[in-house]
Amino acid sequence: MNLERKTAIVTGASRGIGRAIALELAKKGADVLLNYNGSVDRAREVKAEIERLGKNAQLYQCDVADYSACETMFRDIFAEHSGLDILVNNAGITRDGLLMRMSEEAFDSVIDTNLKGTFHCMRFAARQMMKQRSGRIINLSSIVGVAGNAGQTNYAASKAGVIGLTKAAAKELASRKITVNAVAPGFIETDMTARLPEKIREQTLLQIPAGSFGKAEDVAHAVVFLASEEAGYITGQVLHVDGGMAM
Questions:
Q1: Over the chain (247 residues), what is each successive 10-residue block's mean pLDDT?
Q2: Per the structure, how many domains does the chain have?
């Protein structure tokens, strides 16, 4: 899975799964454009790590929920780079709460970032990829988008929407040699999941046939595969990285 001479952008790349994906793409030879929203110090750390691997990295600050900001970001990218080979839509947020207590703002903010943000980036990246007649788009969904989860109606809706968006776009773009796939992580050890109460963590572990939580690198390996030439005949699929949790 050699990604030499490829250019990739990873949204939400300053921490957690996004960071792991960016580093793994660089390890396989890609130059990586790092999108972040608020965590500039962490983004700079990821950039430095990629440069230590001998690959190029650039930072692009942008709230993917903002259509105009995304348009500007991709305009800048295409002014500075001859093409874009890989788009990884990883940026996401949670605003958990029970259905009867969830505010409209909490629902809208998650949909705007997780679902609309994915749409925004796909829309602007796809135009360049269509001109090239090549490209890989990988969207981050979630086991919650497949199976649902109490207290996360907004997040479940956003991640289920990402799957529908992925499949529809895959059909539209396949004739231009652009693949569009999704990765659906299960319970992955990140800063986000580390904040969960221990009781919830114990209950979740009992639902995982593999008997352990995943690592961000497990998700990164799946993304790199879907970004590679070896996955050129795979499109419109959802690859579960969940230790069997969704079975």
A1: 96 97 98 96 98 97 98 97 96 96 98 98 98 98 96 98 98 98 95 79 92 96 98 98 95
A2: 1
Q: Report the candidate in 115, 121, 1 with the shortest Cα–Cα distance to residue 60.
A: 121
CB burial class (10 A; 0-12, 13-18, 19+) of residue 195?
Answer: exposed
The residues that are catalytic are 155
Structural domain includes residue 133? yes
pTM across the whole model: 0.96
3-class SS at 169? helix
Asked, for residue 247, whether it belongs to a domain, the answer is no
Inside any domain, residue 246:
no
Residue 98 to residue 151: CA distance in whole angstroms:
4
Residue 53 located in a structural domain: yes
User: What is the spatial distance between Cα 216 and Cα 189, in angstroms, rounded to a whole number?
Assistant: 7
Domain region containing 138: 7-240
Say what the pLDDT of residue 90 is: 98
Q: Does residue 238 contact residue 146 with C-beta atoms inside 8 Å?
A: yes
DSSP string, 24-81: HHHHTT-EEEEEESS-HHHHHHHHHHHHHTT--EEEEE--TT-HHHHHHHHHHHHHHS
Name the token pair of 174. Answer: 């396949």
φ and ψ at 5, to 5 degrees?
Answer: 65, 15
In single-letter form, the type of residue at position 207 comes to Q
* Residue 14: CATH number of its domain: 3.40.50.720
